[in-house]
Design brief:
The chain has about 325 residues and is α+β, with helices and mostly antiparallel strands. The protein is built from ten helices and 14 strands. The strands form three sheets. Strands 5-6-4-1-14 form a five-stranded mixed beta sheet, with helices on one face. Strands 2, 3, 7, 8 and 9 form a five-stranded antiparallel beta sheet that branches.
Length: about 325
């Protein structure tokens, strides 16, 4: 009997890192939402050797090797990459791909580990917990960050890739309204900040002034979260707009590409209730209501992007279920 595992992940938008000050003994904290597309789609089956076919094959092979070494499992597997989230654009590709590989190998090897343990093994979720929670259950997510200081989970301001902290605890997970849709532009500009440069950005810009952290918390607690619960897209969008100008986003604003800021402004002028940059971008999002509005804004933004730099524009709904991991026997 031949076994194979099919994995399909969400992607995610990252709205904010909440506290990069640390005076209260805790740092990070994140806000974001899982999207129904684009997706990492993998088919994995036992094989005589470790082989990867498809996009980002070297990266996927590195992830598989990490899992195999950690759990000392059989080394042979054929991995077919059938879909991939663009890397380093702000849509969470590395975390989703890491968890897709780990979940598939765990299922084949009959290793019963929760997603959060797999994330720790794969080195994900050490700053923002949005990607891990998006894979786990989807939805709109608020996480509580990490303890901070001597002898704590984190002792320095670091991005997820450079942090060894466990995935942050989820404080709130809520269904995202089905008719609230994001138009997402990925313009042909330089990719987001990553690697050593990302570490340097955290070191150079933190700690964030406490009054900026307080403003971020206020916007989330009394603007964004109530608007989500009450399904008030106008208030929710205004909150997203405000997050672009405070806290860590404000401290690192000069790092965003000029065209990304122009694209956000264009989306707002063209009917988006709120717009912003996901993580370090360049993925730019605009929030609308209903598919008709989404199609209209997508068309307008695609024309705007094509006139200037080129790129891809699509629309996506919230993913409220997380990743699909299916074991098939045939």
């Amino acid at each position: 009997m031949r076994l194979r595992v099919l994995v399909r992940t969400p992607s995610r938008l990252h709205f904010a890192l909440i506290d990069l000050n640390g005076e209260l003994g805790r740092v990070d904290g994140s806000l974001g939402v899982a999207l129904d597309r684009p997706n990492v789609i993998l088919e994995v089956r036992p094989h005589s050797r470790l082989e990867v076919i498809g996009e980002r094959s070297n990266f996927v092979k590195q992830l598989a090797t990490r899992f195999i070494k950690h759990y000392d499992t059989e080394r042979g597997a054929l991995i077919k990459v059938k879909g991939m989230i663009p890397d380093h654009v702000g849509l969470g590709s590395s975390t989703q791909c890491s968890l897709a590989v780990a979940s598939a190998f765990a299922r084949i090897a009959q290793i019963d580990e929760p997603i959060r343990s797999l994330a720790e093994t794969m080195g994900r979720g050490g700053t923002s917990g949005i990607g891990v929670a998006a894979f786990e259950k989807g939805g709109f997510i608020l996480d509580g960050g990490h303890s901070f200081g001597k002898g704590k989970e984190k002792q320095a301001f670091l991005p997820s890739r450079a942090s060894k902290a466990r995935p942050a605890p989820v404080l709130m997970r809520h269904e995202f309204p089905e008719d609230w849709i994001f138009v997402v532009a990925v313009p042909n500009v330089s990719r987001g900040i990553y690697g050593q440069r990302e570490v340097d950005v955290f070191q150079e810009n933190c700690p964030i002034p406490p009054e900026q952290v307080a403003e971020t918390c206020r916007v989330i607690m009394v603007k964004i979260l109530p608007a989500l619960i009450e399904r008030d897209i106008v208030e929710f969008g205004q909150g997203l707009n405000r997050l672009q100008d405070i806290g860590f986003a404000a401290a690192t604003k000069d790092l965003s590409r000029p065209f990304v800021r122009e694209c956000m402004s264009f989306m707002r002028r063209s009917g988006a209730y709120g717009a912003g940059q996901s993580s370090f971008g360049p993925a730019t999002f605009g929030l609308v209501q209903g598919e008709k509005q989404a199609i209209g804004l997508q068309s307008a933004v695609q024309e705007f992007v094509d006139r200037r730099v080129g790129g891809t524009v699509f629309y996506a709904k919230g993913n409220n279920v997380g990743a699909s991991v299916r074991l098939l026997k045939n």
